[in-house]
Each structure stands twice: as C-alpha cells, then as structure tokens.
C-alpha cells in the first residue's frame, strides 16, 4: 500500500512540474533547458546566472517562472551607484526605543532577481556572497536567516559590453549554474511577436512549504550511484589538467553535480541519477568555473568547446 501511494505521489509531482512548463510557455517561447536549470537550482537550493545580450527576455523568463510559484519575489536593478545596503538592508538606530532596528533589504525574499548584476560595483556584488552561500546575512554584528526556499537568479550582459564589472571568481562559484540565453529560431520569434498580442494569466503551482518538502524528498530519496558520482568527479578533474585551462572546477562543482543530478532525476520522475543527467548538467555547472588561458580565448575557443572535448574523452559508466 505504501509503494502504491508513493507511485501515485511521484506521478502527481511529475504532473505538477509539467504544469509549470505549461504555464511558463504561455508567455515564454523556447528556452526549455534554461527553464529546467532554474527549476533544478530551485529544488536543490542553488542559484542561477543568466547571460545574453540585452533584449533576449532574461527578466521576462524569470518573472514568468516566479509567477508559477506562490513565493515572495523581489527584483534589484543593478546600477553603478547601487550600494550593498540597497540589497541586504541595514541596522538603523531608533531614537524612540533606543534600539537598533533591522531594515530589511530585498534579499529577504524567496526569489531574488538581480538584474544586470555585472553593472553593480564589486563591493555591491560581494554583498550577495554570504546570502548565496549560507542563506543568511549579517548586519550590525547580528546574523539573520533568509526565508526558505531562497534562490538568486542574476542576469548579466557579456563583459565585453561597456559599463560592466566582471564578476570575481568567488562570486561566480556561488552560482550553481550559468545558462546562456541564445537566439531563437525565426519561427520562434514569430511566435513571440504573436504572443505579445494577448495577455495570459499564470497559475501558481507550488508554494514555499511544498518546495521545502520536495527539496527534502530529493535529498533523502533520490539515489546517485558511486559510479555516477565518480564520472562527475572525473570530468571535473579533467578540467584541472587540460592545457587549455588556467583554473578548473572547484569542489563546489562536485557538490553541484550531486545536487543537480538528484533534482533533475526527480523532475523527470526518477528516483535515481543516470549518465545523461551528468552530461546535460556539465555545461551549466562548469562553463563559469573554468578559466581558459588568454591565447586559447584569442583563438576563439570557449569553455563550452573544452567541456565538449572533456565529455568525449572521459569514459562514462554503464547506467
């Protein structure tokens, strides 16, 4: 009887995830992989960096996904004069009570959209480090927990664009995924043009309590074999020894693989990870964690090119 109820529950959860995709695609055309990556990050307590040239719909995509979740959603528009306190808040002395009051910044939310993060100065970017790593912020010597679930979805334009500040490696490493928003096909662009002629109502699918229950279920009940974990580690180790790469994947990359494989399996209705999960997640997990030597970059080589070579070289286990 327990097994039957579990099967029914898993079936119901999978239908709910399908419902999220249906709701998102009322507004957003294409970008299925990026939608999946954001959901994987959300249900494994990770964060996502979205990159593309302006006008590619990064903010609209995030807004739409947030609309399918009954969560608190806040947005920060980054500018060169944005201060750290504009994100995390501050402690302010109250003359009446003679005590320090907490003035909460927008980081006290479930879903934080940090728009054009690389337009904020480095000191302001660093204000997110503690929040992203520990899900808490320290103000005036006092540590405050953030609401749960908590996810940062940041957008950035390529650093070649003027008026931007490249994210430091410590900041990049806090992001579970870096997803690149690519140009759509002509057919998809026509569909976008037509979609702007109507307004769609987005239904909420999950609330914070349900998300936390699913996060716990994923962590405790989705199995990842040692061979799958070893495969992921072998891929990461290869990034540390290739001649094209100056700096390879960090231990956070290993943790991201483990969490990501579990969440992707769950979303697809499985209670076990497979090789395909690792291959699919290798690009968003590693592309922002490997640094190429300048002469390889000058030749037009990208992190994705190297990741492709690594996946071809590292032998995958039998599922």
Which helices and strands occur, and which strands form pairs?
Layout: H1 2-24, H2 32-42, E1 48-51, H3 58-67, E2 73-77, H4 85-88, E3 89-94, E4 99-104, E5 111-115, H5 122-126, H6 129-134, E6 136-139, E7 142-145, E8 151-156, H7 169-172, E9 177-180, H8 186-195, H9 208-221, H10 226-239, E10 245-247, H11 251-267, H12 275-286, E11 291-292, H13 294-298, H14 303-313
CATH superfamily of the largest domain: P-loop containing nucleotide triphosphate hydrolases
CATH classification, class level of the largest domain: Alpha Beta
Characterize the overall form: globular
What CATH architecture label of the largest domain applies? 3-Layer(aba) Sandwich
- Count of helical regions: 14
Quaternary arrangement of the chains shown?
single chain
Output the strand order for the largest sheet: 2-5-8-1-9
Sheet having the most strands: 5 strands, parallel
Structural class: alpha/beta
Total E-strand runs: 11
Mean pLDDT comes to 87
Termini distance?
A: 29 Å
CATH topology of the largest domain: Rossmann fold
Describe what this molecule looks like in 3D.
The structure is a single chain. With 319 residues, the protein is α/β, with parallel strands linked by helices. It folds into 2 domains: 2-207, 3-Layer(aba) Sandwich (Rossmann fold); 222-319, Magnesium chelatase subunit I, C-Terminal domain (Helicase, Ruva Protein, domain 3). Helix content is 46%, strand content 15%. The protein has helices at 2-24, 32-42, 58-67, 85-88, 122-126, 129-134, 169-172, 186-195, 208-221, 226-239, 251-267, 275-286, 294-298, 303-313, and strands spanning 48-51, 73-77, 89-94, 99-104, 111-115, 136-139, 142-145, 151-156, 177-180, 245-247, 291-292. Strand 6 (136-139) and strand 7 (142-145) form a beta hairpin. The protein is globular and about 65 Å long. The two termini are 29 Å apart. The model is unreliable at 1-5 (pLDDT under 50).
